[in-house]
Amino acid sequence: MFKVKKFILMSVIFLGVSAFGISAYAYSGASLFSSEGCIACHTINGKGGTVGPNLSHVGSQRSLSWIKTQIVTPGAHFASGSMVTINGKSYMAIMPSHKTMPASKVNAIAEYLESLK
Ligand code: HEC
Q1: Which CATH architecture does the domain made up of 2-114 adopt?
Q2: Beta strands of 1-117 (E only): which ranges?
Q3: Mutational pocket test of ligand 1: of 34, 70, 82, 109, the residue with most ligand atoms within 8 Å of the beta carbon
Q4: What ranges do the domains of the chain cover?
Q5: pLDDT, position 23
Q6: Which amino acid residue places its CA nearest to atom 40 of ligand 1?
Q7: What digits encode the pLDDT tens for the residues 8-55?
Q8: What pLDDT is stored for residue 1 in this prediction?
C-alpha cells in the first residue's frame, strides 16, 4: 500500500514539474513574444517584422539582465529617437518601453530570448 501511494505521489510531482517546466517557462516566453507584440518589429527564425533588429541569436550577444532592462526601459540602452547601429545595421530607436508589464512576463520573454544562441 505504501509503495503504491508513493508511486502515485511521485507521478503527480513528475507531471506537475514537467507541465510547469514547459508551459510556464520557455513555451510561454515564445508565445508572449507574439502576444505582446514584439514580433511585429522583430524577426526570430524567419518570422516577424524588420523595424527592429533580428533576435534569432540575441542570447549569444546579450545577457539575461541586459535583455530584461531592454524590455522594460529601452531608453537605458539606446537614446529614444536616435539612430543606432546593431549588428552592422541602422535602426531608429523607437522600441516602446514596457514599464507596466508584470515581472513574470518580462522574465519569461527574457529567458526565452537569452536561450536563442
Ligand atoms: C515598434 C517596434 C518594436 C516593438 C513593438 C518592440 N521592439 Fe524591440 N526593438 C525595436 C527597435 C527599433 C530596437 C533598437 C533599439 C531601441 O529602439 O531601443 C529594438 C531593440 C530590441 C532588443 C535589443 C537587440 C540587440 O541585439 O541589441 C531587444 C532584446 C528587443 N528589442 C526585444 C523586444 C521585446 C522582447 C519586445 C516585446 C516585449 C520588443 N522588443 C518590442 C523595436 C521594437
Answers
A1: Orthogonal Bundle (1.10)
A2: 43-44, 47-48, 83-86, 89-92
A3: 70
A4: 2-114
A5: 46
A6: 38
A7: 445 544 444 445 544 444 459 999 999 999 999 999 999 999 999 999
A8: 58
